[in-house]
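Handout, section B. The chain below has 571 residues.
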Amino acid sequence: MKNINKKVFGSFFIIALIFTSCKESEFLEEINPNAITEATFWQSQKQFNAALTTVYGALQFQAISGGHLAYEFVRGDIAGTEPWYRPLAFRNLAYNDGTYYVTDKWNQLYIGIFRANQVIEKIQNADASIIFSGDSKKEIEAQARFLRAFFYFELVHNYGKAIIHTKVPGAGEFSKPTSTMVEVNEQVIIPDLEFARANLPQIWNGDDLGRVTWGAATSLLGKVKLFDKKWAEAESLFWDVIDSGVYSLTPDILDNFTDANEYNQESIFEVAYSSDLVPGVSGNAVDDTPSFSGAEATALATEVGQLSFGAFNTVLASYYLHEMLIYDEVDPNNNINNGNSQSKRLTATIAPRNGEGLYYEVPFMDKPGWGFGQSAYVKKHSNWYHLEAEPPNNRSGINFRHIRYADVLLMYAEAVLENSGDYMKAISYIDMVRSRAGVVKLSDYMANNGGMIPELHKSIQVHGPRTFTAVNSTSVMTHLRKVERAIELCFEGHRWKDLVRWGIVKEQFSQLASDEQWREMNKNTIFAQPPLLIYERIRPDFVVANQTYNSAQHDYFPIPTGEVETNNNIN
């Protein structure tokens, strides 16, 4: 990891300006009593918590939880972009080992790992005279180990492998070979999460709100087991979270994507941002420069918000996602939608031309947009709900939720299907998510359609009237994969990882490219027509990606070229 030495070196400033070395002390011949050094730091619980704060701070990096996630959002089946935007290389799978996001995400994750390793390594040998109140010593280590596990999880599921560092590298220790996903899981991620699960509280209160918890560790460990196809273990871990009674779905799904109800009952692992702290600093700024404070804000709202309202609409809802949300059928017996014809889930997620209510505090279509093939914009993570426009300088204070309870319910349903095939049990947990969204439950579809459920992933516009299918473990899994996780969790960093682990990237791209071609051939008859109200052109989101995609080449990013060039142990 020699290519990130300067960034890692810079992170020392966040902890302690920089620890003074012996040679520097000898050269100066006098020790500044006010300077923070290796000998004077790591001497109190407060100092360990200060160091731990820098590990949390790494979560704010834009490639981990902020605006640069736009490059990840456009890779799957739920989003597109325009040719004048940089994410097009990721939409068309035309990136390489030197492309920005590929290198930035690797570097930023390793900064987080470096910071976590400092805390974990130093706390092992903390002086006995240091007073840690109660269980705080184990809790500090558990938080650092959870965060290290999360950073490594992101590495192996973005790059397919990682270089294992479980201590602060010394001279000559940066150059190490890569380890496989299995090795990283066994040597780092699982032991770290098991330790965190055993030593973290279920909840934090007061000023500690927002720290990682037992629920976060248990949920992420369940996700590791799910991805590793250890179905029974995953099911058991997710059930522990559900059965704990700590979490529940928010009455309004929108509460998970605004700054008004953060750290709510659905939040399991959330990254803090603020638009008030460090005013004037761009939300794209990070804190890895010596003597520099990061923005504490996120640039994600500017990436997804609409151009007419001070943003860039870099990420656009795919026609696939748009149509599924349009047909997210409102349950007339569920009053959560307040009489609206569009579901609360649609309203919280995308902005179609015929949207209901206000958008950036004006009625829909009071400003231009929704033209040139852009049928729907992304609402999730933007400030559409309370501002007239996105704030200048790419600043937003909306927290990013990496894990929320709805995700756990859907992963539990998946584990049940894979482990026992009990599709009725799986449906009951899928229906919890659908009921909160105010849409018709799968069990109600079954009751009214001879035990069958609709194939909601198939385009009515392209393929004609809605078809229904018999309920079994296969059809429910198809619904879970292609409908429920897609529309409930879109633009939350899960979709590409899901498609890859299920092995259905090509299947999805092929179908959506075919739908795209049909729309292009029939554009003169479908322009300005429901359900999508497309104008002027058919946006080409999937034709190139479908032709380009190769599982061995594109499922995971390549190891960044700078790492390969400076690390002699990488083949």
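Note. The radius of gyration is 24 Å. Compare this with the example in section A.
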